[in-house]
Write a structure and sequence with these properties.
seven-stranded mixed β-sheet; single chain; about 50% helix; alpha+beta
Amino acid sequence: MQHSFSKLLRKNLLYLAFPVVLVLSILLLLLQQVARLEVFQTTSMDDLSLVKTLYASGERNVSVTLGDLQSAGFSQTEGDKETAEYFYRKVNGEMQLVLLKTSTAQKYRKGELAGGEVRVRIGKDEVAAQHIEHAYAASLGFSQGEMAGVFSPYILDETQYPLTRIRILRIASISLSALLGLLMIYVILATAFPALNQEAWILKRYGGVARTIRRLDREMEKQLKYHQDNVTVTENYLIVSYITHIDVVRIDDIKYLSKHVERRRRGIGRQIHIYRLTASNGEDLYFEADFNEEDIVNDIIYYMRGEPLLEYEENVRREKEAEENALAEQESESEKEAVSEEKQKELEELFSSEAQSSKESEEQGD
């Protein structure tokens, strides 16, 4: 099997890019489905007489050309600030109410909306229609019964049009589409030109990225010394690849090489041994990698140095001897303490018997 650093970069790129592309595609699909909901759809309405029909069908957001409007003399306020103004126009014998934002109403009066479309939402507000209707009846001297039904309860309300939500949805869809497109372009370019791969930027410390990649390709093809799982040793480099990144170490830069054993608990199960390989030069290089098999670490060290790491076995032997000596010393001290306690008891008994004999001698003399 032919090994290549470029292939390694491409494989890792696909491993990383695929889930990102999948997530972005799913999000974009969901946004497209949301955009089909009624609240985000806008219908063009040329005939104002279709208001009732569109409202009944559920199509509430419309884009309409207003034409000639008359001020109804009422406005909508929030606190002390006027936010919208009521207008009306006659459609099929009814007065059609239109609620425009204050800024839109000012543009309409200036003639800036002539022939232009305004996006509104069709609403039904019988209370507002009746209130305006009663006010007009009182001002004109008519009874409320005579004015009943003059104003349509259906209102073209600009303030209720979900402009902000529609814009956010549109911006999000465009952003995801652009991000997905840029990612696909990056994957294609990085596949064709491995030097553009972000994971290859770690090679800058060895000179030009493209030149170093070609050197690694050549060494992995013609000067390969060892390859096992995710580890490769060539004449001049140690390469350890993971899904998230690739570590590349030039062997000539390594001054200190060591192997350590750690005990780790796998979940709630038994403890296992992890073998850690570390390499450094005491300055700007520090590398470490963990392996489950000691033979892999030994092989890596052998092919990097050309000889096994005998001092490691020597250190292990010394550590074991030190542990045995410490244990022996503890046992010896325990035995000494036990002996000293027995001697102390013997001395106490001896002193006690001598004192008793002396006392008896004194009593006999008396």
